[in-house]
Every structure is written in C-alpha cells, then in structure tokens.
Amino acid sequence: MGRLADRTAAAKPLTPYRVLRLSAMMGLLLLGVAGLSMVIGTADISLKSILDLFLGSGTSGDPAGLILFRIRLPRIILAGFVGFALSLGGVVFQALLRNPLADPYILGVSSGSAFGAVVAIVLGFGFSIGVPVMSFAGALLTVWLLMQLGARRMGMESTTILLMGVIINAFFTAIIMFFISTAADERLHSMLFWLYGDLSQGRYTHLSLIGPALLGALAILYRHSGALNLITAGEETAAQLGVEVDRIKKICFLVVSLMIGVVVAFSGLIGFIGLMVPHLARMVFGSDHRLLIPMASLGGAAFLIAADTLARTLISPSELPVGVITAFMGAPFFVFLLRGKGSRWRRP
Amino acid sequence: MAPTLTLTDIGFGYGYGEARILEHITFQVLPGEIIGILGPNGSGKSTLLKLMDGILSPREGEIWIRERRLTDFKRSELAREMAMVSQENHFRFAFSVMEVVLMGRFPHLGKMGFEGKRDAAAAMEALEATHTEHLAHRSVEELSGGEKQRVLIARALAQEPKVILLDEPTSFLDLKYKREMFRLITTLGKDKGLSVVVVSHDIDLASQYCDRVLLLKNGVIHKLGTPDAVITAPDIAEVYDCPVHVDQNPATGKPRVSIIR
Questions:
Q1: Which of B55, B93, B114 lies at the smallest CB-CB distance from A232?
Q2: Does A302 touch chain B (CB under 8 A)?
Q3: A346 contacts B142? CB cut-off 8 A
Q4: Most confident stretch, A90-104, A210-224, B86-100
Q5: Is the per-residue pLDDT at B84 higher than 70?
Q6: CATH number of B5-259
Q7: What pLDDT does A275 receive?
Q8: Distance CA A45, CA A88 (A)
C-alpha cells in the first residue's frame, strides 16, 4: 500500500479513474472487514450458515439469524458509519485549520454534540428525533464558539482555535460528568458507557437516518475537495487562486457539525480515530483531498468495524468500550509510523 | 496600448478615522510592462499589492482590470486574469511540485474538478519556463528557497494570467538566483506580454530590469517613472532616510545605489 502514492503518480494530474479504482479497492477491503466481523463473535456462527442465511435457504427465525441480523449487522453498519464520519470530519477539519492535529474530538465538537445529546436524554427526548437534533445543535454551538472565541483577535489563527477546542472539550466533558453524577440510577450506566463510545445501540431505524445524512455530507464535502487542497496552502493563496474561502469554510464547518452531531448521538464519544485515520491516509495516499476524502472515509469505516469487533470479543462474553480499543491499537501503530516515515506529513 | 491595470486615487487604512496606509495612489500598468514598487519598510508596498489582487478592498478610489471594475470579478474570474506570488508560503501537508503547479489550474477547472490534458500541458509549460521540470515529483517543502520560489512562479504561470504580482521574489535568494529570477521576470514581460508588478527591496535589480519604478514613501507616491528619472541620490536619500551615492552601473548604464558611510 505504501507505494500507491509513488513518484510517478505524484508527477501526473490525479484522474477520476484513479480515484474510482482506489476507492473500489478500499471498498472491497471494507466489505472484507465487515464480512469477517459478521463471523466473529461470542455466539459461534459458521461462514456456511451465514451464506445460507443471506441466500435465503436458512430460516429467519433461528437463533443464528436473530443474532446476525438483529444484533451484529446493525452494529457493524453503525461502526462503519461512525468510523466514516469521524475520519471524514478529521480530514476536513485538518484542512480548514491547516493543522494536522485538528479533529472533531480534540476541537471539542464531539463533546459539544455529546453535551447536546445528554441534555436531550435528561429532558426525556426520544432517540429518533430529539437526541440527534440536540446533538447537532451541540456540535454547531461548539463550532460557533470556536469561531467567536478563536476569531476575536488574530483572524482565525489555527493554533488559537485548537487551544479553544481543548478548553471547550474540557468544559463540556465536565458538564456531562455533572449530569451523569446527578442522574437517576437506571440511566447512569448507559450514559457512562456512552461517554467512552458504545456501538451496541445500532437500530435499523437509526441507520436509515444516519446513512442518507452521511451520503449528503460526503457529496457536499467532496464537491469542495479541490478547494480544500488550496486552503491547506493558505487562505490568502487559496483566494488568489480563485477559491471563495469564507463561503466554503462556512459550508464545510456546517456540514461536518451536522455529520458529527448525528453520529455522536448514536455512538457517544470515540476519540483518536478522527486524528489517526486521516494521518494514515495522508501517509499512504498523499495530500490531494480528491483522493484523500474517499480513502480516509472508507478506511475509517473499516478501521472502526475492526476495532469494535475486538471490543466485543476480547473479553467475551463481557464487552470493552470501543474507544479503549481505538486508543490502545492506534497509538503504538501511529508512533511506529511517525518514527518510520517522519512526522512532517511528507510523501515517503 | 490599453492599460491592463488601472488604479485611480486609491486610499486605504485599517479601521475608520485612523491613519491612512495608502493615499492618492494613481497609476496604470501596460501589457508587457514591468513595474517595480520600491520603498522603505512600512511604506505600504505589500498592502498595495494586496489591494491590486482584491484581497483587501480600497477605502477610496477604484481599481480596473482592462475595462472592468475589480469588484465586479468573482474570485475565480480574477484568478484567470491575475496571479500573485506572495512571500509567505508554507505547505503544512505534503504536496509534490506538480500538485502545487496544478493548483494554478484551479480557476480553469470544469464541473468535475479534475485536471485534463490541457491543464497538464499548461503545468508542464510553466515548469519548463521556470526550469523546474526536473523537480516535478519532489515534495515542495524539500526544495531550496530558490527552487521553491521558482515553483511558485510556475504555479502563477499555470494560471495563464494577464497580470502577475510578485512580492519580494528575490528575498533569501543568492546572487545567481536573484539574476535568474529577474531574467525570468523580463521574459514574462517581453516575450509573453504579461504585465508584471514586482515589489522589491533590491533597488539595483529593480533599476536594471524594470521599465518603470514607483517609489513609495509613507503611503504616497513619491515619484513614478523610468529608473533613470526616479533612482536619483536626492530621491533615494529622502525616501529611505539614508544618505546615498548614485552612479551608473558600468555594465548596464542604469542607476546604481551605494550607501555612504
């Protein structure tokens, strides 16, 4: 994989064909990981019985079918959606802020939307509309705060915004902790677990809401992927090269907030992935967002499915929070890559 | 010949009622003409360049590109008319030289947003014009100052503009590359017919390569004209607040400035 962004490719324009070809390959990898994740689990279900079920020769009423289609499949799809959204959000935030350390979690956008969701739960709102809407509102509030506080003095200086994000993150996490400490007992456990990320609550009704939202977000963000390339080279430079910088920044921040809000409402806070997957994708595929966006999104989906499979099987029949796995698996791998390829986000 | 760029009585200042950074700036740039903007630090040179490229908007006066007001241009339209090479250029992420030069094609791209044969050809031509084609696969941040400067000019050329604005293109360059840079600028003006506006600290180089120079002092035009007319001992001494001796460069016959101890 490391040679995909090789020298000859870098010296030629990127073609839609190359984007499609690599996306198809990454898509196959994603399907492979998802398939593997279907087979692995506390209940032993053979590959043959899965194929039988998919081909319709098995009976839908049997226990294997119930576990696969009512429990595992929605969970796998949710993990894929969440990994997709967090990685895509990370790529776009890094480009907009021209800072390789930006990601929805560090910037406090995730905890902002978690704050919104917790408020919704405390107020007794339902999961189908109330929680995701409040979660989106929380994400939007965070981005607005970042803009207001960060833009006051130095015209959107990215380090200032990053620092603001860290502070906002701490603040919202404190509020969430407060709610959890004071919440009624039976709701406490689910909220606590959700704070570390929980993908077990996948329902087809929720997925049918998240799926189209992500697809829409991807379409809009991809339309601006060429402009994002130029913005990473500096906002003034981007404007001089014909980008309507302010408009595109607003659109992208809004769309990413929506995406993060929807995803956090159903999965809680999962850190690290929005930082790591974009980095890995940059190292392998280079910095062109027209290629980077599909690669990081699909790769992030595969990564979180793999991580969640580990989370539900490692100490089976108990479960670990998936955030523990993403950090535990990702951190050493990331250090290894940084040391091997240099930390300066250059081509190999 | 109709001017490509016209500035009429431009005034600019940050914030209302505060001191003006630029006042009563009026001049025109003709096709194929190379204009040097000279002046001490803080005289408003870079601000003037940003106004010309629409990054800043003037408080008073108007800027015209041929027969059209600058404010009537969309950014993408403007980027097809005018290219700017600024001083600050750091790439936070790894881009190859080819990718950077292809960025210059952005205002020309169609709905799909991918570069075609025509764009690749324009980028190659720009690389050749700046003698950087051998760097195409390299990462920009690995390049030396001189190489990077030339690559950024290649990106500006890939835009296929009518006007090119350069902010201190020779700072940090050694003698050889300074000469190469100004020879390249001359080619752009004389062979390609571009209008070139170059901000420089190097009075002697501007004197040798520019058709006209504009001497700025505290935001107003002190003098505008041929190097012979503008680069005189009294003018330079007054504008830069430093006693100087001006004679003729024996090789080119253009004015040459020396500092008096």
A1: B93
A2: no
A3: yes
A4: A210-224
A5: yes
A6: 3.40.50.300
A7: 87
A8: 33
